[in-house]
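Regression check, adenosine monophosphate case 215:
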Amino acid sequence: MKVVLLGPPGAGKGTVAKQLTNYDGSVQISTGDILRNAVKAKTKLGLEAKGYMERGELVPDKLIMDIMEARLQEPDCAKGFLLDGFPRTIPQAEELEVLLAKLSIKLDGVINLDVPKDVILDRLTTRRTCSNSDCQEIYNIKSKPPTPEGNCMKCGSPAVQRADETVEAITVRLETYNEKTSPLINFYEKKGLLKTISSLSSDKIVAEITAAMKK
Ligand code: AMP
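Current build output:
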């Protein structure tokens, strides 16, 4: 499937994308993961992106579009992709349209994960992420804890709180979402591509998406 996952930070885009990769071999493309790996590896991209990310602000559109233009042409995208955290601004969505047309790729749809603000805040402050860049499994200290030692159940690496999961950075990320990303709901609605799902259970969300894909 070729799908965009839309929703505020903490809506469950990453968890749902990871589950959906088992459905038909589509790959998860998380611009946040790509950027975090670049920051860790101290590449030119990482050094440019670090400050924006730590403050909870968006990285400039140009950097993101360069990443996506290259990523979407990698062979593993042929079976399909789940765009997790991209596009995040109207200019990115417009450039994505041009890029997809150039690559003769048609989007199946855009899934808008609609989650109440109190749930989002609770999830973001209790989230832990596997620090192994090849794993990045997502945990929650209340509902899906890592091992008692605080390690990833899958690979054993420490499950840590992300640098942008301080209360200050979370506040900026949510404001940024409201201002820059939420207009995409209307953008994709007008194109007839949007499906909004309000469930809090990732299993139910995945079931709804896969059922919609079969239609
Ligand atoms: P995420 O893991 O999707 O919450 O992304 C973490 C951070 O990476 C965001 O707060 C932004 O600083 C940056 N980022 C990720 N995706 C994008 C994007 N499409 N456009 C701009 N910045 C992004």
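Comparison notes: Residues 9, 31-32, 35, 52-53, 56-59, 64, 85-86, 88, 92, 164, 173 surround adenosine monophosphate (CB under 6 Å). The mean pLDDT is 95. No diff flagged against the previous build.
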